[in-house]
Amino acid sequence: MSACGIGFAIFLVTVGMSFQAGTYDAWIETATGLMSGHAQVQHPAYFDNPEVRYNLAEGTELTSRFEGVPGVVAVAPRAEAFALVSAGERSFGAMVIGVDPVRDAALSDLSTHLAAGKYLPRPDSAFVGTALATNLGIDVGDEIVVLGSAVEGGVAALVSQVDGLFETGRAEVDRSVLQVGLAAMQAGFELGDAVHRVVIKTGDARGVTGMRPALQAAMPAGGRLLDWNELLPELEQAIQIDRTTAAMTYWLLLVVVAMSVVNAFIMTVFERTREFGMLLAIGMRPNSIIGMLCIEAVCVWAMGTVIGILLCLVVVVPLGLLGIDISNIEGMESLAGQLMMPERLYPALNVEVLTESPLWMLLGTLIAALIPALRVRRMQVVESLREEE
After folding, report:
1. Helix (H, G, I), strand (E, B) or coil at 45
2. What is the pLDDT of residues 89-120, one digit of tens each?
3. Which residues partner with 155 through β-bridges?
4. Long-range contacts of 241-244 (CB under 8 A, 24+ apart)
């Protein structure tokens, strides 16, 4: 029964952690896939003070350099500026982003949120958020004028034709972002070949930390490397809060199971008092008996772990391949958009998921076995032999 209890606890905790890991992966990929990428290279001052003058020279050469780093899937240079966007008599402030359409589409999901038109088909195209387009009173085919400050402090001007509209469902993006061609942006804001961000996508967002040495080797002099944890600190905080909250539930479950194991070993010690007395009488040391009980506890834990992991694999592996469609669950469609989750959720198995709960359960089982086993040290041989079976 103890092995079954341990197995059931490990099964519940492991399945819960696998769904958490899958959810976190979905959060990270959805959040980084829209705009930020897995890592970025910027001017050291740009992150805290995003001004046009804080840029990286030779953007083309930097892009090619990072594309050659092993493990990098896609690289996209971007030039950015806060500017006034006008159409007719209406004007609104917006973030104007100059992008290479081909490279940016390889790492950003923004082009997939097409609401109308096409994604930057020409050098002078503009790709505008639907909320910003509504505020400006424009549609596909209309012309907009962008006015801002150039690098040297002069007036920057850019005229573009709206060839596409996007709608992400996130108001802060849809009402304040527009994309134009990188070359047009650089010419209008007198940037030359300079860019403000070199956005990098790797094979695995969680593996960016391990890739830092390789990325640092390709860094320009005076550049700053930021991974998604630094670019999206609120996402990292949300993951930590969710992980802490879930850990409290897991700990409670493991403690309850450990208490049941304590009870089982207490009964074992009382039922086997005469046996232990005989072992003491023939010269076996108390520590050896305690060691024997610990070995029995490890065997019970091992059986429970095998049961729990096998049950977990039976449940998680098929769901990891098929996924769970959360878009059809009532009330989840809008919530999924707010929490940056995809339509299907895939539980994930990794070393941490498969080892953390069994290892903590091992510690709890050993402690549960030691507590009643300490009674063996106080046993009197004669009294133990008189104990009735």
Report:
1. coil
2. 899 999 999 999 999 999 898 988 999 999 99
3. 149
4. 242/20, 242/23, 242/24, 243/20
